[in-house]
DNA sequence: GATGAATGAGCCTTCATTCAT
DNA sequence: AATGAATGAAGGCTCATTCAT
């Protein structure tokens, strides 16, 4: 919110911009380590500015989280583009998902943000940036028939949500355990003609797509 | 801890037991709605007792959460037993998982508890109660060759973690959306001979089992 | 207070008396170690009775402290009597004071009680029991002219107050340091003809005695 | 601690300094009356600031007590310096001790602080400020042979501890009664060649000094 | 704009005391 | 009489947010 206005109005004064960067840098590190619960005071101290400055730049915690998240999305877009270079469409998809999750693995704040913002406006706008690339990854896989029919980009979008808690819960035990759960999910995305079907299957693809699209155009606010 | 003693020593006095139930009832509702962050004061007010009473019965938040969780585990054990009555081994497994998740769907507190207690002692003891039954479900499925080789009970244990955030994130959009993600995971558990394999697969079954078992015998303390 | 009534009315029932003793025994130990700040719950637990029982027997903390103090006074009277057996009047006095303080040295609760009850009714009645014996010690010393003229029993009564804080403050450094301060005080009690005098001396003996006596007949209540 | 930083870094902002003074003023009064047990809430109300402000300035009770105590020490140093102006070495000593105690007489908090901080770091640093001046008072008295051989500054340091409880205990009876006990102690400090000796004297001077010095260089932490 | 002090609500916890069982 | 559960005031502390400097 506050962020948006700042970007619209005019470029920030030089020192203000420098402070903004300091805050972002400090916040990135702190949030990755300690999650979204860090206090404004901690942030301010780490950034070596006063609390008031944090508030001026990021009127609420969300606007800060969003700014950080935007940067993460940049990287994920980058990963997705890189994956498009891979010839094997399934391998491309797997590479994209795996790389994205590795990004998320060490970043506690990011996982929390994802969990509490599935339907937020920020998430919607970020999805808008990601969807074209992911759609292409998905489309290629469908053409090659290496993806279970009916799977769409939104299904991929759930994966970070699903794997995050496994990362957190198992880190102490074995930091890579999440890869096993991911493998199961990826297997679940594969086509498998002779597979048994649940008698009462969940949402079918068309219905699912409609629900997701409508929700993201006019996002539900909590 | 405090709870344990109460259960070991002798039945509570009648009035005490009544208050204990009041607290549990209020807590169940509050936690389901608002998550584990509810304060002792809120609990006391909702249960219509004084704070001190809450503290007497549940000296720390954990002991309360654990009491509630025990009840949930009771139900899940029940669900698992009921599933064993189903002839079709795959259907039994699916039914168990689905019913368990339905239990969890409306309960924010339960989901949070699961996420933050993967390696806790409580979770370990609860797992000890659940594992025998689940093991049987899994064994039957393996015998019938309807479960991907290498899948074990611990893999099933990750499912609540994985589906929880999808439930939360999508509730506002469409409360049943998680069933679709679950379907993907369940498909991932199916055997599929001709399936492609990831070039760099995650933990293999044997290694995985060893890690999980060792961690749960002497659980890592946070 | 409550104590008094209990003693007046009738002998306690046997189990009640047994509980009373348990409480006193536990309290003696706990208070000696931890001072007067121990909670009723601690006391009850240590005595292996319920809090309510502590309250029934000793309606307020003071009545318990007083009961314990009575016992201490018994011992001090005993010490004083024993000191009267010593021929050298000065040595008798010194022995009495030193032994009393040794009693007090390991008893944090006793020191605190003394400090907060100088003018209490209990203290007054205890003093009444002690005074005759101490008076005799003092009188003998005066006759032998080994005590500075004007010193009276009440002056001796201040010594435990004075040495207590030295005991507490220096225990960690050297548990016997208080003996040095005591020595100074004892030296101050000796006659010393050629001694300089303070230009503005404090209360003179007669006045002092009068003040003390009047205060102790009808003790000021805080 | 919190205090220290404030004093080191830079002068406080004007409004902050004003609040700090308010707090100190209120605290001085409250502590003098009610002892060190006053709560942060009481302090805040008396100072007409919010609790948070008290905490910001004095993160723990100790830092507040220390700030107050520093001021008291300032005054005592002043008194000691003034005493050095007095020609008669004994009279100088007596004046110093008496004036210091008068400062302490009406201040319950100060007495408690002294009693519970004999070996604290604060006390050690304060002693460091006082010792030079007191040493001079003591040295002059020794040269003039009006002080019992072996008495040192540390012995004088015990006097406030000793007289404090007498002040408290007797205030209601007669607020000046402590002067009589002080007189005894002062007499104990006088030289007196023909005086009897205790058969088993306490710590001798050399040993005493060593104990005290070592303890105050590296103070024992409670 | 930046600063950081002040605010005060709100959480956690303990404990003296009462009173139903 | 004994028990021990319940009460609730009170103290300790933190932190998001505002606003004077």
UniProtKB/TrEMBL annotation, chains A, B, C, D:
<keyword id="KW-0804">Transcription</keyword>
<dbReference type="Pfam" id="PF21597">
    <property type="entry name" value="TetR_C_43"/>
</dbReference>
<dbReference type="InterPro" id="IPR050109">
    <property type="entry name" value="HTH-type_TetR-like_transc_reg"/>
</dbReference>
<dbReference type="InterPro" id="IPR009057">
    <property type="entry name" value="Homeodomain-like_sf"/>
</dbReference>
<feature type="DNA-binding region" description="H-T-H motif">
    <location>
        <begin position="39"/>
        <end position="58"/>
    </location>
</feature>
<dbReference type="Pfam" id="PF00440">
    <property type="entry name" value="TetR_N"/>
</dbReference>
<dbReference type="InterPro" id="IPR049445">
    <property type="entry name" value="TetR_SbtR-like_C"/>
</dbReference>
<feature type="domain" description="HTH tetR-type">
    <location>
        <begin position="17"/>
        <end position="76"/>
    </location>
</feature>
<keyword id="KW-0238">DNA-binding</keyword>
<dbReference type="InterPro" id="IPR001647">
    <property type="entry name" value="HTH_TetR"/>
</dbReference>
<protein>
    <submittedName>
        <fullName>TetR/AcrR family transcriptional regulator</fullName>
    </submittedName>
</protein>
<keyword id="KW-0805">Transcription regulation</keyword>
<dbReference type="InterPro" id="IPR036271">
    <property type="entry name" value="Tet_transcr_reg_TetR-rel_C_sf"/>
</dbReference>
């Amino acid at each position: 919110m506050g962020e948006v206005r700042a970007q619209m109005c005019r470029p920030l004064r030089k020192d203000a911009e420098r402070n903004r960067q300091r805050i972002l840098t400090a916040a990135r590190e702190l949030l990755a380590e300690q999650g979204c619960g860090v206090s404004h005071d901690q942030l301010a101290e780490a950034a070596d500015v006063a609390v008031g400055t944090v508030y001026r730049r990021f009127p609420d915690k969300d606007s800060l989280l969003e700014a950080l998240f935007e940067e993460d999305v940049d990287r994920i877009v980058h990963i997705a583009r890189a994956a498009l270079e891979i010839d094997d469409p399934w391998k491309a998809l797997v590479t994209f998902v795996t790389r994205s999750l590795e990004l998320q693995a060490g970043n506690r704040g990011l996982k929390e943000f994802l969990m509490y913002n599935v339907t937020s406006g920020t998430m919607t706008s970020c999805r808008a940036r990601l969807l074209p690339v992911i759609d292409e990854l998905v489309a290629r896989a469908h053409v090659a028939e290496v993806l279970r029919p009916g799977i769409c980009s939104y299904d991929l979008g759930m994966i970070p949500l699903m794997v995050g808690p496994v990362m957190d819960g198992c880190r102490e035990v074995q930091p890579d355990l999440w890869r096993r759960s991911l493998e199961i999910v990826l297997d679940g995305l594969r086509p498998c003609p002779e597979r048994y079907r649940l008698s009462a299957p969940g949402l079918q693809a068309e219905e699912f797509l409609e629900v997701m699209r409508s929700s993201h155009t006019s996002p539900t606010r909590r």
